[in-house]
Amino acid sequence: MPKKTILLIDHDPLSIKLEKILLSMESYEIHSVNDALEAIKLLESFTPDLILMGMRLPGMSGLELIRNLKSHSKYKNIIIIAVTANALEEEKEQAFAAGVDGYITKPIDITTLPNVIDSYLSKKNE
């Protein structure tokens, strides 16, 4: 069975580093970029099973990128989980309206992140 691929998109290199460490231990293939335009370029070459996406991105907001991806047939079935330090209910509602499948607030719970990701990927395979 091929490894599941995850794309990490976040302007914060420390967040990406933490997510990579936690998810690499679970045998996922991890790719990462620091902004929306890099993500769009990278997505031309592969389609991940899941995207962990920061909401504050240089060049284009996370919400804009989510709407962009969900509007294209090639990307609309990718699981997208928003990751943000903003716990405001309004932002959460906007993220779900844009098309995210899940929402995680920072600081990331290092004890549960791998299980959360696994549960989303398992649902996709049902």
Q: What is the strand and helix layout of this fold?
A:
Layout: E1 5-9, H1 13-24, E2 29-33, H2 36-43, E3 50-54, H3 62-70, E4 79-84, H4 89-98, E5 102-105, H5 113-124
What does the largest sheet look like? Answer: 5 strands, parallel
Measured distance between first and last alpha carbons: 15 Å
Beta-strand content: 15-25%
Low-pLDDT stretches are none
Average pLDDT across residues? 92
CATH architecture, please? Answer: 3-Layer(aba) Sandwich
Principal-axes geometry comes out as globular
Predict the CATH topology.
Rossmann fold
Write down the domain tally: 1
Number of separate strands: 5
- Main β-sheet, spatial strand arrangement: 2-1-3-4-5
Count the DSSP helices.
5
Please trace the helix and strand order, writing H or E for each element. EHEHEHEHEH
CATH class: Alpha Beta
Q: Decide which structural class fits the backbone.
A: alpha/beta
Looking at this structure, what is the CATH superfamily?
Response regulator
- The gyration radius over C-alpha positions equals 13 Å
Helix content: 40-55%
Q: Mind explaining what this structure looks like?
A:
The protein is of the alpha/beta class and 126 residues long. It has one domain: Response regulator (Rossmann fold, 3-Layer(aba) Sandwich), CATH 3.40.50. It is 40% helix and 20% strand. The chain has five helices and five strands. The chain has a five-stranded parallel beta sheet with strand order 2-1-3-4-5, sandwiched between helices. The longest helix has 12 residues. It starts with a strand and ends with a helix.
